[in-house]
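Section 3.1: Structural characterization of target chains.
Under the original work plan, the team committed to producing a structural model for every single-chain target entering the pipeline before any wet-lab resources were allocated. The record below documents one such target. The sequence was received from the expression subgroup and is listed exactly as submitted; it comprises 383 residues.
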Amino acid sequence: MKKILFILCLLLNVHANEASYNDIDSGSIKKLQKNTLFGSSKIIDLSSNGKFLVMGSLGGNIVIMDIEKNSLISLLKTTLNDITSIALSKDMTTIIAGDLKGQVEVWNLPKKTLVRKIDGHTQEITSVSISDDNSRIMTASKHEMTKLWNLKTGQLIITPISLELPIDYDPSAYLCTHLSGSNAFSFTHAQRWIDIFDAKSGKNKGKVTIFDETLDPNHRYITTHLPFINHRAIEFTADGKNVILSTMDEDTLCKDCEKGIEMCIKTFDISSNALKYKIPLRGFLPVLTLSKDGKHGVFIDQYIDRVNGKSKMIALLKRFEIDSGKIVDSHVLLDEWTRFGHTRQMDFKILREISEGKYLTLAQDGGIDIWDLTNLNITNKGK
C-alpha cells in the first residue's frame, strides 16, 4: 500500500491562482485537516483516467493534485465561500463547484480561468454534476429543488419537479444529483426511491423504487439507517441500465425497531424498476464504486469483530460481478490487530478505482490512501 497524506490543507486564502507546497504552513494543515474532509465526500472528485484529484476547500480554494507524483498541480482561488460540492468533467476540461451560500462557479481547468457564475440557489449547494457531453449541469441545494442548466450559456433549462414526496418528507434532507447518458437522477438519503428525468429537457421519466413504502409504518424511518449519503454508497452504470447502492435489508426489519437492521448491496434495473439481486453485508454502510471496465462493483465491508471480549476493526474490499452479484474476491484493507497502531479510523468516505487493481480511499480521519490489491491479503475468494 502506498500511503498518501497530502491532506487538503491548501486551505489558506492564497491570493494567487497557483501555489506550491512551500507556501503552506504545516501547522495550519494539521489544524484544518479534520475540518476539511470530515463528514463529506462531495468536495472531492477523481479524474476519469485516475491520475488527478480535484478537491474543494474551506475558504473557496480548488486544489488539483497529481496522484501518481503525490504533488500539487494547481490551486485555484475562487470567489466562493466554503466549497460544499465539486465535480470534474470526464474530459477533464471543466470544474463545477458550489458553496455554503448557494453560489456555483464554472472553471476551465486547462486555462485555469473562471468561465461563469451561476445564480439560482440561496442555500448550501449539496450536489453538482456534469453530463457526459459537457452540455448540461445539474445542481441541488439544501431546502430547495434540483435545477438543470445549459453549461455553455449558464441559462436555467428547468427545475425538475419530484414525481412525489414521501409521507415523512424532510425538506432539510440533502438533495443529490447525477447525470448519466440520457438520464438525470435526483434523490435524498431520506427518500425511498430515485427520481429519473430526461437529461436534456428535465421532464419526468419515472422512478426506481429502492425500498417498499408499504412496510410497517413504524419504519418511517430512522434517517441514519437510510440508504445512501453524499454519493458514497450509490453508483449508476455507464450504460444507463443499472443503479447499485447500499441500503437496509427490509427482510431484517422488526416491528419495534430495537433489533439490528442489516445492510445489503442492491442492484436495480432502471428501465423495469426491478430488483435484480442483493448482497448481504456484515458491517454498516459501505463506500461503493464501479470498476473502469464496467463489469464489477466494488465496496468496503467494514465491521467490528469481537473475540474473547476484545474488539477488532475489520475492513474488507470486495468485488462482485454487476450482472450476477457474485463476489469474485475479497481483500483485507484493515485489521487492527496487525496494523501496529497505524489503523485508519473506520467509516471510509470515498472509494475510487485509479487503475486496474489500485484503489483510492478517503478515511474518516481525513487520510487518503492508495491500495494495490497485489500487495494485500486475499480472503474468501469467490464466496
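Residues 143 and 369 are 34 Å apart (CA to CA).
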